[in-house]
Amino acid sequence: MPFTHEQFLDIFGAYNTALWPAAAVLWIATLGVMLAFYRRGAPMSRAVALLLTIHWAWSGVVYHGMYFRTINPAATLFAALFIIEAMLLLWRGMASPGLQFEMGASSWSLVGMVLVGYSLVYPGLGLLLGLTYPRLPLFAVPCPTTILTAGVLMSAPPRNVRWLAVIPILWAAIGGSAAVMFAIRADFALLVAGVLLLVFITRSLFPPSRTTT
Q1: What angle do CA 68, 71, 72 make, to 5 degrees?
Q2: Which of 26, 113, 173, 176 has the most CB atoms lying inside 10 A of its own CB?
Q3: Model's pTM, two decimal places?
Q4: What is the pLDDT of residue 213?
């Protein structure tokens, strides 16, 4: 890593000190949209896609582009990946017909609900696990964004979100490895989310074989 554990936490400290109102607003908006989605289902699909678009664009432009890049040159590439994901979500979410998310349509969507819930309680987990404010990841940053996205994508047919899952899975590997290295325990779930999302999108590629008699 081209930066130390202390430098990593310092970036969150600067980010949270300057931008905590934006992170709070995005958390409230996320809670509101997801509660509406769980009540109304598919009619909220475009609102959910737009919410994810905002998350990925914000994390790419603001977190990676303005903050993380000061200690890690690779953040320029990360910013580009996050912006690409935002564009893909906007394109697929607003297309006609757009993505259709349906909570409760399968057991996978219930797994997704757990991940969404985890992303919403994520801001408090760092504090519970020993980090101190403001030097900890809270919200409107890449890791909870990825966990939230993995959960939402699991409520759509796998074939419809296969390409949308590529960058979240990639970031789960990158961010998850950093979490292990720097012992950011709240982010260990990122690795779990990435593996689950990978299984979710690939399972339909290998349908169970049928035997005939």
Answers
A1: 75
A2: 176
A3: 0.94
A4: 44
